[in-house]
Amino acid sequence: MGQYWKIVNIDRREHLGHWGKLGEFFEAHDSLDIILLLAGSWAGCRIMCLGDYMINCPPNVLTSEELAEIEKLPENTETERGKTLYSLATEHYKHVSNRIRWGDLRGMVLRNRTKRVYVRRDEVLEALASREGDIGNVLLTNISWSDDPSCAMRLDLSRGAWAGDRLDVVPLNVVETNEEWEDVTEDQIKLTMFALSRND
Predict the structure, then answer these.
(1) How many domains does the chain have?
(2) What is the rounded (10 degree) CA torsion for 21, 57, 192, 125?
(3) What's the whole-model pTM score?
(4) Superkingdom of this entry's organism (predicted)?
(5) pLDDT by residue (tens digit) across 52-64?
(6) Are 103 and 135 contacting, i.e. CB atoms less than 8 angstroms apart?
(7) For 75, which of 67, 86, 89, 161 is 20 to 30 Å away at the CA?
């Protein structure tokens, strides 16, 4: 049957509802909604794409208060879903139906503030043009998290290296001259292109 996935903002206690199976929405343009949010109200927040089969979060993502809140959740015997961040988000986070349909993303970069790296949107668009890919695909490749590898793709994306990291979208000039930031665009294009190719 497979698991269902949900985009969660831990800091703002918001989620974007159920998005279905990862392989079904991975190439959809809806991932641009997240990018536009990261350029706005979600900037700098801890973001994850959670599978409903998840059990634990990556280390050091949740605070002790957040872990305690999860531990206080009742066991859900109907769905067999335990005390998880997915359950907490479903029951207590605000469902935001933010469908921003326009935003000027020219010259922008997707930035991982936790790891001090960034990805250039212009280069991603050029490299992934044949697949109509964008930095939304780069984002999903890196923020998906579950304890079960089922994601309706021929590639396991359930252990995203950026899951729970603080992310934002900013103009290139913010990072271009700053030595604290590393450009990982080339590596991320390769990873995302591979993920897209395994979703045929």
Answers:
(1) 1
(2) 90
(3) 0.90
(4) Eukaryota
(5) 999 999 999 999 9
(6) no
(7) 161
**52/177 Cα distance (integer angstroms):** 40
What are the pLDDT digits (tens) for 16-33? 988 878 777 777 666 778
Question: What's the pLDDT tens digit per position in 93-111?
Answer: 999 875 555 667 889 999 9
pLDDT tens track for 135-187: 999 999 999 999 888 776 777 788 999 999 999 999 999 998 888 999 999 99
Q: Whats the size of the chain, residue-wise?
A: 200
Mean residue pLDDT across the chain: 87
- Encode the chain in three state secondary structure: CCCCEEEEECCCCEEEEEEECHHHHCCCCCHHHHHHHHCCCCCCEEEEEEECCCCCCCCCCCCHHHHHHHHCCCCECCCCECCCHHHHHHHHCEECCCCCCCCCCCCEEEEECCCCEEEEHHHHHHHCHHHCCCHHHHHHHHHEECCCCCCCCCCCCCECCCCCCEEEEEECHHHHCCCCCEECHHHHHHHHHHHHHCCC
Q: What are the residues facing 117 on neighbouring strands?
A: 112, 182
| Nearest alpha-carbon partner for 50 in 118, 140, 116, 173 | 140
